[in-house]
Amino acid sequence: MQMINDKDCAFRFGDFGPKYIFRGPKHEWGLIRLKPGDELGAHYHNEVEETFYFLSGKGKIKIMDKEFLIHIGDAFRIEPKEHHNIICQEEMKIIFIKCPYLPDDKIPL
C-alpha cells in the first residue's frame, strides 16, 4: 500500500506543468496544470498508453490529424504511437495516467 497527498508533490515548473503523484512500478499518474498559451508539447510513446481527464479550463487536444475542443469532464485514451498535444486557452487542470510504467518512452516531435 502506498499513500501520498498531492500537496507533497511539486509541479515541474513551480506552479504549472506536470506533477507526478505515483511513478511505478506498473503505471504512473498525476496532474497537469497549464496556463493560457501553454502547450503540453507534441509527442508520442512507443509502448505507453496515456489517458487524460480534463477537470477544468478550456483548450484543445490534437491527436494525430484530429483536433478536439476540450470540455470539462472529457477523457481521452491515447494509444501507443498516436501523436498528441494539448493547447491551453484558459487555465487547465488535467489528470493523466500512463501505463505501463516506462519513463523513457516519450518521444518529442
Instruction: Write down the oligomeric state.
Output: single chain
Range of strand content: over 45%
Largest sheet: 6 strands, antiparallel
Low-confidence stretches: none
CATH architecture: Sandwich
Q: Residue share in helices?
A: under 10%
The CATH homology group name: Jelly Rolls
Mean pLDDT: 97
Radius of gyration: 13 Å
| CATH class term | Mainly Beta
Helix-strand category: mainly beta
Question: What's the helix-strand series?
Answer: EEEEEEEE
Domains (count) = 1
| Shape assignment | globular
> First CA to last CA: what distance?
37 Å
The overall strand count is 8
Instruction: Return the CATH topology.
Output: Jelly Rolls
Number of helices: 0
Explained architecture:
- Strands 1, 2, 4, 5, 6 and 7 form a 6-stranded antiparallel beta sheet that branches. The chain has a two-stranded antiparallel sheet with strand order 3-8.
- It has strands spanning 17-23, 28-34, 43-45, 49-63, 66-69, 75-78, 84-99, 106-108.
- Strand 1 and strand 2 (28-34) form a beta hairpin.
- The protein has a single domain, classed as Jelly Rolls.
- It starts with 16 loop residues before the first strand and ends with a strand.
- It contains no helices and 8 strands.
- It is globular.
- With 109 residues, the chain is mostly beta strands.
- The model has no long low-confidence stretch (mean pLDDT 97).
